[in-house]
Amino acid sequence: MRGRNKQETAQDAGFVTADARDIRVNRLSHIVMWPLAPRLSPRPPRYIPYTHDGGDLIEEIIATACAQLKASGEWEPVSDPLLQAGIRHVSETEREAFKKGWIENETKKLLDAKAGGSDDKSTELSPDEASSLRQKAEDVTAHHFPTTETGMEYGEFVYFHDFVQQTMFSANAGNCDDAARPVRVYRRKNVAACSVVLKQGDDEIQFRAAVPRLTLYLYASGAIIVCAELDYGMKPDVLVHIKGRKRKSPVSRPMTLADAQTLTDRVRRVYAPYFTGVGDATQHSAADVPVAFSWHGTAAWPDWPERSEITNLADTRLREVNPYWLDSARKMIGKPDATGNVNAPLFGHWSAILDPLLFSGNVYQAEPEQWPLWRHVVDERLPVMTCLSVTDGLPQIASRGLHGIRRSDWTRLCYADAAGNGYFYNRKFMDGFEQSACYDRYYPDDENSSGEGSRFMFSGYHFAAVGAGWFFDNFVLNHFRRHYFHLALAAHVELRPACW
């Protein structure tokens, strides 16, 4: 194991912590949220509206956007918002791990109940009891990993108060004919997976994820939030493309906590924050962004060797596509749209995924007089949610579970900062971090040697659920992608009214 950071010893409460590069990720999921607003300007003179003449401008924008999405054939309305989460791909390994954990927990309960208050505790179940428990485990597992979206929506619905239910889960959310509809939901039909490549020194690291959800929420205010859920699976691996290696095939290794930290920072970037390099502008390249990002079609997951890229969604490659190079990015900023406005140059893998909607100032779309135009309303880092498990991921020399994570790595996880040595910010600035940013109701106390539990962290633009143990792995993830997803969605709609 790599050496400890001695400066953190006092903050780690006596536990033996591990370097983030030595901690294996047991499970990782991201939900990226992209807020957009309409460019409120007069329609181009030759524009022929899809819908009625006259009327409220926002209503016309909404109706036109609905018609465009419907006509594209790539998006479908979700009539019941309870069915918007999509089906997560579940491997047989994950299914068996859940079943084994459930049987172990129920066996302990039965043995404790049989023993009562006596010291003579039974050590095994009878054959009939064991058989009954195995059969029940099959039923519980089938319910926990449904093959349709009808298995989890009840708990998601009753989690909220009635006045929230009426807004979030109103029926016929895809119906554009009802002007009073608070939100309309659309789902992208032909995206099943994605791959992301990051630079690490001279090497490149490839991450692969299923995409169970790619949804678009169109609100009555005219605002849009696009949500992409990236599920990297259980015990995920990464592919390392080593520069100069004679063998061309990449090397597979386990995903580490350091990988997850950097991926969380990079995957949410929609344009280059700045450029690095020397010489003229043609030699400057985008910093802190993926080297490549590809969306893949329905044949991609889980059979990666047979994957097929979506032909109309060309992947963005740092080595080939315009926004990654300083000279091209300058030209894109200087090119106004039909209304005379300019925006930051968005990467093609983000702007193309929302076809047929058009973005203000985007040179990829060659119809300047189409309408409405949508604008990006945050900086290059999109709001994101992260669910991260480190169950059984700590090296043997370190404390188990959450106790083995360094405090500096906790702060990096909270604020979606890339991996690194020590604190990203001044240590004094981090005083009170646990009190101001962490919800530790189920964080393991000092007597909990297993380190199992959870920590929820909040930074405005990032919600992170980090945990270890069977309950976290099998129940918190479902709450994260359903219950907590809706809380984050509502928060971002509420926080951005000045942008709309």
Q: Helix amount, in percent? A: 25-40%
Poorly predicted segments: 3-7, 44-55, 300-321
Q: What is the overall pLDDT average?
A: 78
The separation of the N and C termini measures: 49 Å
> Oligomer, anyone?
single chain
Given helix and strand content, the structural type is alpha+beta
Shape from CA axes? Answer: globular
Q: Give the strand content.
A: 15-25%
- The number of helical segments is 11
Largest sheet, in brief, is: 16 strands, mixed
Strands, helices and their partners?
Blueprint: E1 27-38, H1 57-72, E2 75-77, H2 92-115, H3 127-144, H4 153-158, H5 162-168, E3 183-188, E4 193-200, E5 203-219, E6 224-234, E7 237-241, E8 251-254, H6 257-266, E9 275-276, E10 285-286, E11 292-296, E12 316-317, H7 326-333, H8 348-351, E13 358-359, E14 373-376, E15 384-389, H9 407-414, H10 433-437, E16 438-439, E17 453-458, E18 462-468, H11 470-495
Parallel strand pairs: 13-14, 15-18
Antiparallel strand pairs: 1-6, 1-14, 1-15, 2-3, 3-5, 4-5, 4-11, 5-6, 5-7, 7-8, 9-10, 11-12, 16-17, 17-18
Helix pairs in contact: 2-3
